[in-house]
Write a structure and sequence with these properties.
CATH topology of the largest domain: Growth Hormone, Chain: A
Order of helices and strands: HHHHHHHHHHHHHHHHHHEEH
Shape: globular
Strand content: under 5%
Distance between the termini: 23 Å
Number of strands: 2
CATH superfamily of the largest domain: MFS general substrate transporter like domains
CATH class of the largest domain: Mainly Alpha
Helix content: over 70%
CATH architecture of the largest domain: Up-down Bundle
Structural class: mainly alpha
């Protein structure tokens, strides 16, 4: 593994993730206060990004195979930077949309925000391209470590981004957008100056002769694989709903009658605490728990903790009373998600494990699109606590699926069946855990 190059990619992914996550805590509040968005319209701003991303990411991957990693990374980051500039100038762009009759029944500024999110999503597949770059510069023995470092950069970015948002939101709701644009410009500069191309024309030609990957239908034909995907999708719905609606929930349930800047700042701090809880749990708890209980049982435990978090959030009336559900959410997420990912890899060979993890990520991406829409509708029609009370039912269903999964015999890494997975290799979980 080329340490200098992987360090460069780590820095690029870290900076990119900080820029992307710095706007999440305040974005629904911003469009609600600045452009009069309804709760549904505010959460749709989150969903629009992921809808565009799930459509574009495979194409960006194919383009990187054809034209090289570096130009596609640069192109995607230019798109992200332009999207942040569109955020900043949304009122002016919106006025232009209104003049030409393209507001589509909403304020022109909100329409400009949607266009910016769609553009960011269409060019936002740079993490998968960065992972491909990391794979290019590592050998078979160090590839897992290289990909784990990329996942680590994403995880650290998901902590530092909301932390920076909490600081900048105290200035104004627009300040995190400026911060995101600056981070994006830094990332683009790092890519142009430091990153060298890895996929030479000769390698691209050789890649064309690689045998075709197995079909999706073949990969999910085994019942445990379908059950793992279903469990991940249901848990992903709750996780995505929490992230998309947390600022609106905090405004209405935890910090009523507070200025939006204060709400965004406090919500950012709480999200940082969640991220720290996830990071600490992954480092200290996941391995020992899986070694003692096995991955299947750990998924059940994680589902139970997520039920507790949903009920707790639904009942909380202040930041203090939200402390327990924050802890339960962090623990439940941190132990169930990598365990599901690791279970998924047991059904693949070296040639198919990437495709299986891609299917896993696709299930989560679908949840990232649907959950914000559902959360917005629930807030509009039933109030902010309804997101969590319905989330408790969802997590109950996910836990039931996990119980069914625990009664199935799963293969070892060598393909031999076993009744339990207590002898799994927990040290590999964190390397596979990509946010």
């Amino acid at each position: 593994m080329n340490k200098e190059r992987i360090a460069t990619v780590f820095l690029i992914v870290l900076t990119n993730t900080i820029g992307a996550t710095v706007i999440l805590p305040m974005l629904p509040l911003y469009v609600e206060k600045q452009f009069g968005a309804s709760p549904l319209q505010a959460t749709l701003v989150i969903a629009a990004f992921y809808a565009a991303q799930i459509l574009a990411a495979p194409w960006l991957g194919k383009l990187s195979d054809r034209f090289g990693r570096r130009p596609i990374l640069i192109l995607s980051q230019v798109g992200t930077l332009v999207a942040y500039l569109m955020f900043f100038f949304a009122p002016q762009l919106g006025a232009g949309l209104e003049r030409v009759g393209l507001a589509l029944g909403m304020s022109g500024g909100l329409g400009a925000i949607y266009l910016a999110r769609i553009l960011d999503g269409l060019t936002g597949g740079n993490v998968s391209v960065a992972e491909a770059y990391a794979s290019d510069i590592s050998d078979a023995k160090s590839r897992t470590q290289a990909l784990g470092l990329i996942g680590g950069a994403i995880g650290v970015g998901h902590i530092l981004g909301p932390a920076l948002a909490a600081i900048l939101s105290g200035i104004s709701l627009l300040a995190p957008i400026v911060g995101a644009a600056v981070m994006s410009a830094v990332t683009l500069l790092l890519t142009i100056v430091l990153l060298e191309e890895t996929l030479t024309p000769e390698k691209r030609t050789a890649a064309k002769s690689t045998p075709a990957a197995p079909s999706i239908r073949h990969l999910i034909s085994r019942r445990p694989v379908a059950l793992i995907l279903a469990t991940a999708f249901v848990i992903g719905l709750y996780m995505a709903a929490v992230m998309a609606s947390f600022a609106l929930y905090a405004e209405r349930a935890l910090f009523p009658n507070q200025p939006p800047e204060v709400v965004a700042q406090n919500a950012g701090v709480m999200i940082v605490v969640m991220g720290l809880g996830v990071a600490v749990s992954q480092m200290l708890l996941v391995g020992p728990l899986v070694k003692r209980l096995g991955e299947q049982v750990v998924v059940i435990l994680g589902g139970g903790l997520l039920i507790v978090s949903a009920i707790g959030f639904g009942s909380a009336t202040s930041a203090t009373t939200a402390a327990l559900p924050i802890l339960a959410y962090a623990l439940g997420y941190s132990i169930s998600w990598p365990s599901l990912q690791s279970l998924m890899t047991r059904f693949g060979s070296k040639e198919t494990v990437g495709r299986l993890l891609g299917l896993f990520q696709s299930a989560f991406s679908l949840a990232l699109i649907l959950a914000p829409i559902a959360a917005g509708l629930l807030i509009e029609q039933m109030g902010p606590r309804a997101v969590f009370y319905n989330g408790a039912w969802l997590m109950g269903f996910a836990t039931l699926l996990a119980v069914v999964l625990a009664h199935m015999d799963l293969p070892n890494r060598d393909g031999t069946p076993i009744a339990h997975v207590a002898e799994a290799e927990p040290q590999n979980f964190l390397k596979r855990f990509h946010h």
